Amino acid sequence: MSLSAAAAAVTGGEARPEEDERILVSEVEVRGVEGELRRVAEAALSIKPNFGYTMKEVQDDIHRVFDTGFFEKCQPHGEDTRDGVKLTVEVTANPELRGLVASGANVLPQRVIEDAFRAQYGRTLNFGEFSKALKRLNGWYEDRGLFGQVTGVDMADGIVDVRLAEMVVSGLALRYVDKKSGEARDEGRTRPEVVLRQLTTRPGQVYSTRQARSNIDAVYSMGLFDDVNILPQPAEDSTLEHPKVDLVLNVVERKTGGLSAGGGISGQGHAAGVVPGFIGSASYAQRNLFGLNQKLSATVELGQTDSLFRINHTDPWVGGDSSRTSRTISLQNTRASGTAIHGRASDDPGRTGAGASTSGDPGEESGGDAGSVVVARLMGGVEYSRPLATGWTGTLGVNWQRANPLTFSGGDSDTLMLALLRAAYSGRADTALAASVEQAVPVQPSWLNFNRLRLRAERSVPLGAGVSAQLCAKGGVIFGDLPPYEAFPIGGTNSVRGYSEGGVGSGRSYVAGTAELHYPIYGPVEGTLFADYGSDLDSGQRVLGDPAGARGKPGNGYGYGAGVRIDSPVGPLRLEYAWNAAGLRRFHLGIGSHG
């Protein structure tokens, strides 16, 4: 190829060499900029004088100059010389970024926009850095699950106009879906306003997938639906510049009430009789009373020693209160064995079943005279609860109670009016805290007057491969009038395992701690290794009649062992085998997490 044809090819003329035909470049020059920008362009070029290059290699070099991001135009020119083709790269620098205007950003903070572009002000605009800044704005929306993005960019006289579009919620609708047919129904058993009040999304807000998931969880937690989902649909007046979305909440209702009956083993596990702790129960429950998500339950339990009648009514959202205050009213009449307080410390090896010891002194009876002690209580009360902050819930309540026998007052029964204040935290990382203060108010001179404080802390620590450590610590103290049946019992299935219920002691104050290691076995079955400790802090003798000391309870003790847990709809089912500080062994059967 002649030199003139080669120069024309570099410049973009009609003469085109073969792809692999080389052009001798005698000189390389960058024009249009000076100083630092010229050095940037020259550094991007790999073409050197007095070497031959194909047209593709020349074009690749021009692209490298353009890819530096500092130039809006980059044009090669070829000129014949005696020694070859002189390659001149003509570049036009981007304008200097002097300012920025963002339009359409309603939730995107101005600070985020300023931070994204601040380093580029007063400098030649670089396309690469500018693109990263735009991606940073889009990333802010993505990180928060918000529907928003940059839709366009214009620049004039060094001022950049960034256009953003945020998808706004236009409307909310509720659709009841038939469970069998999957078709929409005109009405449901739950009032629409009761469902929709669970949503934190409101018309005019930017649509958030994170908020949508939270709304689904809130509606599902009502316990009234088998399936909940949100279907976003473009609104009729939605445009590219101003996108809008209508949200349809689809719910499939479930059965919310009915009668049930059953039997089981009491958590006391210590009632006298051939089958210790056996109970039968019948209950009625309605979780959606009047379509308002109010809960009404009535329960009757009858055992060989224990009996219970309880009726509860819960309104989860009193009068549509903006603070989401709930109210629970309860009435309860119980007769319960006093074994946990008045039972003996030692276990009878002759007993069998859940809670039975496999070693002990054959000369002692478990429970002893405790079988004749039955504590009867009549109670009624009301509690109000509401969220306080993220993860925190507060409860305020009042409870009236009449109990007998073994009274503190010395009369036929004790009467008390108990005010309750409780704060609970259930946060991330499987951490839970609970603290409560109860004050018995002596409305009449004969009524009890005491103050009770309780504290509990739990933490779950993942160790990997499905293994986790569960830690729990709790304690309490009582000041003032203390009837024996209100003392803190220590020991048993949900306290210090390896002991009978209340087998460690009972006191005005106590501390207890548990460490458990959970590891997977198969499916819903887990294995556990555990160690427990509990102490009455030498307060047992300060309980009226010193029931723990009179029955030879040690006042402190520890237990350790192993067991299995099976997840179930009513909570973990636990079968555990434990040794205590005296070397006695014991099976424990429990429902729910330990403690």
Automatic annotation (TrEMBL):
Transmembrane segments: none
POTRA domain ranges (all copies): 189-254
Region entry Disordered, spans: 331-370
Keyword presence, Disulfide bond: no
InterPro entries xref list: Bac_surfAg_D15, BamA/TamA_POTRA, D15-like
Gene3D superfamilies: membrane protein fhac, membrane protein fhac: a member of the omp85/tpsb transporter family
Keyword vocabulary terms for this entry: Membrane, Plastid, Plastid outer membrane
Pfam families, A to Z: Omp85, POTRA
Bacterial surface antigen (D15) domain mapped to chain residues: 288-593
Major localization class: plastid
Localization of this protein: Plastid, Chloroplast outer membrane
Keyword Plastid: yes
GO cellular component: chloroplast outer membrane
Alphabetical list of PANTHER family matching this protein: OUTER ENVELOPE PROTEIN 80, CHLOROPLASTIC, SORTING AND ASSEMBLY MACHINERY SAMM50 PROTEIN FAMILY MEMBER
Protein name: Uncharacterized protein
Species per Swiss-Prot/TrEMBL record: Elliptochloris bilobata
